[in-house]
C-alpha cells in the first residue's frame, strides 16, 4: 500500500472519542508550506463491532449531509457505539465555505477516486480515503443532495452491484434510511465516484439525495439525521432499536441514460 501524503492528527484505532483533522500539504500565494484541513472524528466503543465511515460535504453546496454528520459526531459518545464510527462531516471545506459544488480550483471531488498519492490535493485526499479509511470500514455512508442546481425528494440510493451478498446488504441498509423513496442508479457524468471505489472494495455502501434547491427544510434535516442514525443502528454500529416502516418506501430505478434527461 502506498503511503499517503495526507496526515491524520488522531489515532483511528484508539478507544474513546477523538476529534482531529486530515492535513493535506499544499502551497499557495501566501505560503509555500501550508495545509488544507479536513475535520475528522473517530469514536470507538468498548465492545467489538463493525466500522462505519460517514461522509458529508463531498460537494460544498450540499449542507444536509454535513449538518447530519456533524450532529452525529457531536452527540455520539463511545457508550453509544458498538465497534467504531469515523465521521468526515465536511470532505470539501473550501467548497463548503464558498457554498459551491466544486472546489475553488474547479475540481469535482466526487470524480477524484481512487485518487493518486502524487497527484493534486483532491487526488491525494481521495487516495487517503481509498487506502486508509475504506479498508478500515465495513460500511460507507456518503450523503448528497441536489445542491443549488437541483431539488430532489429526499431519498436513499445505491448502485446495483454484481455481488449478491453485498447487494442484499446494501438494499437492506438503503431501506433502513426510512425515506419515502429509494433509488437504484447508474453513473452518467464520468467515473471516479467515492461510492464506486468503496463498492469495488466490497463495502456496504449507502448514499442519498436529500433535497437541495439552495434551501433546507426542517423536515429534510429530520430525515437526514434520523435516517442516518437508523442505518447505523441497522448495521450494528450504533446501539438502539432499529425503526421500521409499516409500509416500505417506493423503490425506483434510474438505470437508463434517458432517465436523467430533462
Q: What does this protein structure show overall?
A:
The protein has helices at 63-75, 93-98, 121-136, 164-175, 194-200, 218-234; strands at 7-8, 16-26, 34-44, 51-55, 84-88, 139-144, 155-158, 181-185, 204-209, 250-254. It has a ten-stranded mixed β-sheet, with helices on both faces. Helix content is 27%, strand content 23%. Helix 1 crosses helix 6 (218-234). It is an alpha/beta fold and 262 residues long. The model has no long low-confidence stretch (mean pLDDT 93).
Approximate shape:
globular
Mean pLDDT: 93
Percentage of β-strand residues: 15-25%
In angstroms, what separates the terminal alpha carbons?
43 Å
- Helix percentage range: 25-40%
Total strands? 10
- What is the element string, with H for helices and E for strands? EEEEHEHHEEHEHEHE
Stretches where pLDDT is under 50 for at least 5 consecutive residues are none
* Biggest sheet overview: 10 strands, mixed
Strand order in the sheet with the most strands: 1-2-3-5-4-6-9-7-8-10
Tell me the Rg in angstroms: 17 Å
What's the total helix number? Answer: 6
Structural class: alpha/beta
Question: Could you give a quick summary of the protein structure above?
Answer:
This protein is of the alpha/beta class.
Reconstruct the topology from this structure.
Elements: E1 7-8, E2 16-26, E3 34-44, E4 51-55, H1 63-75, E5 84-88, H2 93-98, H3 121-136, E6 139-144, E7 155-158, H4 164-175, E8 181-185, H5 194-200, E9 204-209, H6 218-234, E10 250-254
Parallel strand pairs: 4-5, 4-6, 6-9, 7-8, 8-10
Antiparallel strand pairs: 1-2, 2-3, 3-5, 7-9
Amino acid at each position: 500500500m502506498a503511503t499517503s501524503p495526507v496526515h491524520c492528527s488522531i489515532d483511528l484505532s484508539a478507544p474513546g472519542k477523538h476529534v482531529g483533522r486530515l492535513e493535506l500539504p499544499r502551497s499557495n500565494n501566501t505560503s509555500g508550506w501550508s495545509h488544507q484541513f479536513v475535520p475528522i472524528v473517530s469514536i470507538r466503543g468498548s465492545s467489538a463491532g463493525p466500522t462505519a465511515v460517514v461522509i458529508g460535504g463531498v460537494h460544498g453546496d450540499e449542507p444536509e449531509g454535513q449538518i447530519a454528520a456533524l450532529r452525529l459526531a457531536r452527540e455520539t459518545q463511545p457508550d453509544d457505539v458498538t465497534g467504531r464510527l469515523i465521521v468526515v462531516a465536511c470532505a470539501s471545506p473550501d467548497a463548503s465555505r464558498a457554498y459551491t459544488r466544486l472546489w475553488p480550483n474547479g475540481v469535482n471531488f466526487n470524480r477524484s477516486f481512487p485518487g493518486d498519492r502524487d497527484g493534486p490535493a483532491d487526488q491525494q485526499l481521495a487516495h487517503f480515503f481509498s487506502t486508509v479509511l475504506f479498508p478500515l470500514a465495513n460500511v460507507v455512508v456518503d450523503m448528497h443532495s441536489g445542491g443549488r442546481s437541483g431539488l430532489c425528494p429526499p431519498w436513499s440510493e445505491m448502485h446495483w452491484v454484481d455481488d449478491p451478498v453485498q447487494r442484499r446488504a446494501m438494499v437492506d441498509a438503503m431501506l433502513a434510511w426510512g425515506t419515502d423513496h429509494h433509488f437504484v442508479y447508474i453513473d452518467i457524468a464520468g467515473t471516479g465516484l467515492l461510492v464506486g471505489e468503496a463498492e469495488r472494495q466490497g463495502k456496504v455502501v449507502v448514499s442519498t439525495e436529500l433535497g437541495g434547491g439552495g434551501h433546507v427544510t426542517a423536515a429534510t434535516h429530520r430525515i437526514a439525521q434520523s435516517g442516518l442514525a437508523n442505518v447505523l443502528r441497522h448495521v450494528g454500529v450504533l446501539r438502539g432499536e432499529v425503526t421500521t416502516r409499516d409500509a416500505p418506501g417506493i423503490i425506483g430505478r434510474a438505470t437508463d441514460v434517458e432517465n436523467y434527461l430533462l
